[in-house]
């Protein structure tokens, strides 16, 4: 590109010289002096322009290289944080199982039947938690690597929503929670998506809503169409989420205050999986909440 620029530059320079020297008012000697002087000045200008262009190119290259290195560094930091958090989450249930078993063995002479049952129940609880963490880690890895390669096909989103609500009814009945379905579409909305992945998204959102809702309350799932997007919102009446936590809850293994206090089996990867699936589908997930007023999780999927 630089060679073409300077070729044109020299061509235009020679045209200017010809116009200046093409006059009968100048003697031959004067023409030579003018030609040499202008040529020297233009050659110097050429060099300066070339140097300026090279400096600009080097500065631009340095900027973009720095940006790339920064992005790589951020990715490595996230990976290291993920590995550290995963190690901690996997180690915790193993430590609890090991400690409780060792205590039982050391005190086996005085261990009662009720005490043994309690230890076994705790071990089962921690084993379930460990299994859930591993399962979700494997699923998240699959989503991140292969979702674009998975088959996408037209699906009736209204049918998928109804199916997931039915599958969550048993869980909701255990807390006497009523799932209210507000369908504001014509029942025939089709989107191009991976059905299994979208089912996972809706299942995670509904399970979270049930988990955080008090006994006897209701959950509302709303299905609408907005600006060529399917909009699905799940609203609960739980404790709500502080504004400063609303971005963190999508980070791997992050557990909000309510989840941490409950002691329930949670992998800390559910919303991370939801966000990743939405990104892969060209959609997004949003949360609207304030403490004491529940939370509404919404997803947007392009039609």
Automatic annotation (TrEMBL):
SUPFAM superfamilies: ATPase domain of HSP90 chaperone/DNA topoisomerase II/histidine kinase, Homodimeric domain of signal transducing histidine kinase
Name of the protein in question: histidine kinase
The UniProt record lists the keyword Cell wall biogenesis/degradation: no
Alphabetical GO biological process terms: cellular response to phosphate starvation
Keywords in alphabetical order: Kinase, Membrane, Phosphoprotein, Transferase, Transmembrane, Transmembrane helix, Two-component regulatory system
Enzyme class: transferase
Transmembrane segments: 49-72
Histidine kinase domain mapped to chain residues: 85-303
Domain of life: Bacteria
Entry GO terms, CC: plasma membrane
EC number: 2.7.13.3
A GO molecular-function descriptor: phosphoprotein phosphatase activity
Organism: Candidatus Buchananbacteria bacterium RIFCSPHIGHO2_01_FULL_44_11
Catalytic reactions of this protein: ATP + protein L-histidine = ADP + protein N-phospho-L-histidine
Keyword Transferase appears in the UniProt entry: yes
InterPro entries according to UniProt: BphY/WalK/GraS-like (IPR050351), HATPase_C_sf (IPR036890), HATPase_dom (IPR003594), His_kinase_dom (IPR005467), HisK_dim/P_dom (IPR003661), HisK_dim/P_sf (IPR036097), Sig_transdc_His_kin-like_C (IPR004358)
